[in-house]
UniProtKB/TrEMBL annotation:
Keywords: Chromosome partition. The keyword tRNA-binding does not apply. It holds the Pfam family SMC_ScpA. InterPro entries: ScpA. This is Segregation and condensation protein A. The keyword Nucleotide-binding does not apply. It comes from Merdimmobilis hominis. The lineage of its organism: Bacteria, Bacillati, Bacillota, Clostridia, Eubacteriales. GO terms for biological process: chromosome segregation.
Length: 245
């Protein structure tokens, strides 16, 4: 069975296209359609096509029935709310169809001009930190940051307690100590001078020996193991030399 011939209506792709034409022609508000005027114009156009013996597509007749139903519902108070809802749905379809037509026209224009890409769009950068790290690395970074913060603080008072509380040993007293021991023993092992006493005494003894070596009163063997009087100081002068100092 052969399909019946269909003719494209004069410049219109479908019923929505015809409705947009009528709305623009009669300057109707697409947001608030006056169904009475639109229905009258739409049926008049359908009648003209019938009189011209043109075959009318089913979609055009279905739209005519839809407009009649909306008009009928608007006349009955009981269905007034439904009528308004149907008008809003029709208005939304017409607005959407109008936007689609505008897009098609722009695409056709770009195709004719040889432009096949869309206009550049601004891409917003994602500010979300999405990397993952090992927990040990995060802990080490935290401790390092905390350590830098502590280094900026002044040292606590307890850090100076060991220095302030130590007694001061005069170097002069350790000079007499070294000379007295050498008077009693001519040759004394170097390490024995540091076997007793606290740190302050040992430091003062070391400075005393440096002073005595510098002034030429005592000597240290080449192997740094023995301390003795320097040559040129007779034994009988040792005691006097000690107390003269």
């Amino acid at each position: 069975m052969e399909e019946p011939l269909q003719f494209k209506l004069e410049g219109f792709e479908g019923p929505l296209d015809l409705l947009l034409h009528l709305i623009a022609k009669h300057k109707l508000d697409i947001q608030n359609i006056e169904i009475t005027i639109l229905l009258t114009q739409y049926l008049d156009y359908i009648g003209q096509m019938k009189r011209a013996n043109m075959e009318i597509a089913a979609s055009f007749l279905a739209m005519a029935a839809r407009l009649v139903y909306i008009k009928t519902a608007s006349l009955l108070p009981k269905y007034e709310e439904e009528s308004e809802q149907l008008k809003r749905e029709l208005s939304g379809q017409l607005i959407e169809y109008q936007l689609l037509k505008e897009v098609v026209q722009k695409m056709q224009q770009r195709y004719q001009d040889g432009i096949y890409v869309r206009l550049p769009m601004e891409i917003k950068a994602d500010q979300t930190y999405s990397l993952t790290h090992d927990s040990t690395l995060l802990a080490a970074a935290y401790l390092a940051a905390a350590g830098r913060g502590k280094r900026r603080l002044p040292p606590p008072r307890a850090a100076f307690s060991g220095i302030v509380s130590r007694r001061i040993v005069p170097v002069e007293s350790r000079i007499l100590y070294v000379l007295d021991r050498l008077y009693r023993e001519d040759f004394i092992p170097y390490e024995t001078f540091f076997e007793s006493g606290d740190r302050s005494e040992r430091v003062a003894t070391f400075l005393a020996m440096l002073e005595l070596i510098k002034t030429g009163r005592i000597c240290v063997s080449d192997d740094n193991k023995t301390v003795y009087f320097a040559p040129g100081q007779p034994p009988q002068e040792k005691e006097a030399q000690i107390y003269d100092d």
